[in-house]
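Entry type: protein chain
Record version: 2
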Amino acid sequence: MRDWAAQRVATAAGGRLVQPPPEAAVGPTRVTVDSRDAAAGDLFVGLSGEYADGGRFAPAALAAGAWGVLVSPEHAEAARCAAPGALIAADDPLAALAALARSWRRELQAQTIAITGSTGKTSTKDILAALLASQRRTHASPANYNTEIGVPLALLAAPPGTEVVVLELAMRGPQQIAELTAICEPDVGVVLNIGPVHLELLKSLEAVAAAKGELLAGLRAGATAVIPASEPLLVPHLRDDLRWITFGEGGDVRLAGEADDGTLSIDAAGERIELRPSFAQAHNRLNLLAAVAAARAVGVTPAGRLDVTFSAMRGQRERLAGEVIVIDDCYNANPMSMRAALDDLSVTAPGRRVAVLGDMLELGADEGAYHAEIGRYATEREVDVLITAGPLAARMLDGFDGESYATADAHEAAALAGELVHPGDTVLVKGSRGVGLEIVADALRAARAPD
């Protein structure tokens, strides 16, 4: 937005320009919602949060050299004369942030791809961004910028000249994905899967599908929808005025074969695509198929070597001293992603399989049964040692037949894992974000730093 005058920024946000910036100032170069991060050229948006009203920090942002602030009217008045800079007033700064992001998305005229699903959103975003990068100027949302705050910030960070924007959309309840879809106006919508997440709020898989289906409902006529083949829960949300691409076994984009060197042969609606990805997990291969479908929807046919750097705590493998391998998958967990991670541990571990698993949160009334089922699945996948962290995860031991230990929390699990892990072990560390199992991964790294 560097070329946008202050009045244009205010109008795009649906706000009122209370005070213009200094006469020589150009438009803002960046948008931030953290006044501590505000610097020269930035537009600071003061949001009201659970613990503080960010608008109170408008004077501090201006004093730090910010181009301007977008805050509620009372904070805009209070910031007058605090320091030079634009003052934009909006009754609802969060809605103004969304409106500003939507205006910038339209200014860019970039093709926009939005990804949602019960699991795998970030990994698929990382894969898709890597597929596109060699052929299109691509901007992907950083880390987990997937909420009503993160999605607008991700859009506003896309530089001029961007050709494709890749976003992920998260959901905690009904109408949230609809809201995010209205902000980013996708040309391509990807629904990766439907699984038992947020059941404490949504109660049923049908309700989860309806929430994810808000992305499909919000697509413009003629847009492209990418969905898994044979997912009956999405059938009620199909639309005749969309272009549909299915992926996975029996889908339009499916795996056709694998060479000895790891090169995958993909059948994309009759066209053969050869890719050699830097990863081998079965669940990420399925995510790759969804990414290939989305790439083709914006005119990109990938080929050759594919190197993907996944976002932190999403299945990274790290080799430590003593040939110990840690699979750091601490970012989040649900029954679907737990099974996928155990599948990967089962087929890739050269020695003992050790799983440090934490509570899976927000699963509702059947949370105990879901945890016990994961214990049974760990037995099926021949896990040798299971360490649980948290009261819910302890139920996994009800269904597990091997060597097992229950701990109260991540700190106890970290201490125990340090004692139990032997040279040559492969250790999976996975749980819901609230459990904080990165403590376990960090402790193993510290104890077994590579020689």
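Comment: The chain is about 35% helix and 20% strand.
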